[in-house]
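My hope is that you will study the record closing this message with an eye to the fold:
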Amino acid sequence: MNASRDRENVTKKMDKILVRLNLVGNKQKQVMADLNQQLKTRVDSAMKELKTHLSSQDVRKKFTSWTLDEVPKVENSWHITENEMEKLLKIRLREIIEQWEEDKQVFGDARKSLVQHFQKHYNVVEEELRDLQGAAVDDVDVPETDPSAWTTTQKVILGLTGPIWFPFGLVALVIGSPIVGIMAIKSKVEDKRKLKKYEEDKCAFMADKAAEYLEKAKDENVLKSFVKDQMKEANLCLKQIEARIPELIEADRMLYKQLSDETRTQKEIQDLYQPIMDEGSLLRGHLAVFGVKELRTNDISNEDLDWKENASSLLGYGMSGVVYHGTMRRNGDDQPVALKIYNAVLDAKNAAVIVAEVDLLR
């Protein structure tokens, strides 16, 4: 296609394309800044909502209310006893957050909206690049649209096109607490004192411990780490886009430079590529023949079709074949169909055209 064009016109078109490509490159920086801000905004919003929930009186009451059946028994060591308390506190906090998420869907909605937002902006940039590629290889005008007005409906697969959900491993991993072996070793006297105090009123002691734990859980640094973890799939999507767009732009720059720097004559290009194109067309034809004869033979059998090669059934005709009216039996029902009979015998030269038309009709 490039060989058939006037080189002066090609050069002018490539200059315009490169200008547009630079605009796309500049625009993608703005896009990435916007996407990163969107992620930050969502994380901050989710963190505030979760902190508000954990600060409510209902949560505080539920988290600090314990019965004798719920609190751990007194162990031989204070460290072991306290560790059992920590485990129960983590479980209860996890249950509270899980129930909140189930009711409010804060993380679920945020993940979904972020991924959709990211995909839309990625599609916008990719479609603009596709338009430029089309302008480079086809006889079409270079797009002159304002990058800020880009729109698209195309779906791009990033591995994250559906709803995202992953289980809450969360509190036990994110909201840390002392466990056996990491607390400073205290005197046996103090350990016994704490064990005695706990044994005197387990429920009250557990309530105080829970109130302390809840305050630590509401710390913004802790919550932000947790919320970011819940948004990790959306963050991964953003990282993929951030890496992918520059790759696409650079690939197009290389393509356009190659086309712009072309110095061979039209005849030299044709002499080089025509044999390759002919060989490729023949190979494609042989594959099409194989596909029709070996792979599609069972699609429709003659027993399923009822048609007559006469004037009353004729629907139309052209250079390649004739179209008749007929019926086809499917699942016990007769359905009206249009049946095209090709004039030429199927071979490697016409098979690709026939297959392409069949696929179009399907």
